Amino acid sequence: MNETSKLRLGVNIDHVATVRNARGGAYPDPLRAAKIAEEAGADGITAHLREDRRHISDADIDGLMEVLTVPLNFEMAATEEMQQIALRHKPHAVCIVPEKREERTTEGGLEVAREENRLAHYIAPLRDAGCRVSIFIAADQRQIEAAHRIGAEVIELHTGAYCDAVTDGDAETAEKELKAMTEMAAFADDLGLEVHAGHGLSYDTVTPIAALPQVRELNIGHFLIGESIFLGLEPAIHKMRQMMDEARS
Ligand code: PXP
Asked: Which of 93, 107, 109 is nearest to 47 (CA)?
């Protein structure tokens, strides 16, 4: 296994922008949320600039690049437009995700194996520009091997199916999904890939994922932004951080 280190928490602020955009005004401000998350101990901020700009805007990315003192993980689809934007900003990390216009959220992992050639060429300039390239994929050996071959440094395992199964009370599927992630986190780590995980994580689902020793970073958004209505953003993040640390120890 790679050298272990503290499990990092990346706070995804997309849904602060969702609430802002519901009225088309200026608040709540995602940049303010990002700064509070930083102060609450977030190790990074994640933002997904979608093709349809349904939440995060180009101006949000400009602002994040200006004000953040922690790394920005820039989530994007593998399109020409997004590549140009990433190359202009050179964020610490880019996470390549699949994107469908009609989906409510990022439903599955990226199909890397079938698009190996295109993706290898796509990420090369991003790597050359100094961005850490992460690929958002299912816990599937074929996709992990392909992500490794195209030169990605990081994979992010899609935890959505596991979280949905827990929420639905489907213990059998939850166990199957967790087993796949346990095995594939170890497999990816053995290949030398850094392993991240995220999507749909909450206080009810974070512990077994945070306990996977090869996972180095969790990216969590929707639940934390929702929980901040009740607890406040800073306490909501503190509680997640504490649960992650407890799972790790
Ligand atoms: N990681 C990736 C790659 C994602 O696309 C998302 C959702 O934008 C997340 C993590 C965070 O998921 P959630 O908002 O459900 O916590």
From this structure: 93
Six-digit token string for 18 = 């969702």
165-176 pLDDT tens trace: 999 999 999 999
pLDDT tens digits for 48-95?
A: 999 999 999 999 999 999 999 999 999 999 999 999 999 999 999 999
Q: What share of the chain is helix, strand, coil (3-state, %, to 5)?
A: 50, 15, 35
In short, whether 97's Cβ falls inside 6 Å of ligand 1 is yes
Nearest residue (by CA) to ligand 1, atom 5, is: 106
CA–centroid distance, 12 to ligand 1, in Å, is 7
Nearest CA to ligand 1 atom 7: 199
User: Quick one: tokens of 190?
Assistant: 């053995």
The DSSP annotation for 20-80 comes to HHHHTSS-S-HHHHHHHHHHTT-SEEEEE--TT-SSS-HHHHHHHHHH-SSPEEEEE-S-H
Global pTM reads 0.95
Q: What is the four-CA torsion angle of 29, 34, 40, 45, rounded to 10 degrees?
A: 150
| Residues labelled as active-site residues | 48, 75, 199
Q: Residue 107 Cα, ligand 1 centroid: separation in angstroms?
A: 10
Q: Kindly state if the Cβ of 95 falls inside 6 Å of ligand 1.
A: yes
